[in-house]
Amino acid sequence: MVMFIERGIRGGLSQCSSRYAQANNKYMQSYDPSKPDVNNLYGGAMCQPLPHAEFQWVTDVSTFDVSSIAVDSAIGYILEIVLEYPQHLHDAHVDLPFCPTRAKPPGKKQDKLLATLCDKQRYVIHYRNLQQCTRHGLRALQRYTVYSNSLNLRGSAITSN
User: Fold this and answer.
1) Which residue range forms the structural domain that includes residue 125?
2) What backbone torsions phi and psi does residue 41 show, to the nearest 5 degrees?
3) Is residue 32 in a domain?
């Protein structure tokens, strides 16, 4: 299980892309309160439920449906899948593709984190990331492995400060 989860650890992505910014605050004529301002992304991520118990493999992978899991589910899942990146999404996602992979760029000796528009084979991904990918048009074609765990522990060091 540990080696399975470690395969999903890829590191941080650093890149240059086309800049885009759109203000959304109460002083703007086009203000939309349903689109909140997002800051403190790291602190917000650290306040999400963390795995702490009941680590187990899901036995019936063929019927597992990630879209039916609530975002605030008490059980978390990590999947190993084949992920298709449809051609019609490439222009819209070219600046920041979903699902970076660790690989050697052509002509290089060191692995790098590459954000590509290629299909992903045996990609290890958290269920909430996969839900985001599928909402944006990517398709999970095949599931190999599904791992579940209890998520009752929260990042208490962040919330108590």
Assistant:
1) 1-11+40-147
2) -60, -40
3) no
Count CB neighbours of 155 within 10 A. Answer: 15
d(CA 3, CA 148): 15
pLDDT, tens digit (0-9, with 9 covering 90-100), for 99-124: 999 999 999 999 999 999 999 999 99
Residue with structure tokens 């992505």?
13
Tell me the per-residue pLDDT of 72-89, one tens digit each, with 9 for 90 and over.
888 889 999 999 999 999
Rounded to two decimals, what is the model's pTM? Answer: 0.80
The tokens describing 97, both together, are: 């593709």
Burial class for 138, CB neighbours closer than 10 Å (0-12, 13-18, 19+): buried
* 49 phi and psi angles, rounded to 5 deg: -60, 140
Instruction: Say which residues have a Cβ less than 8 Å from residue 133's Cβ, sequence separation at least 6.
Output: 83, 98, 99, 125, 140
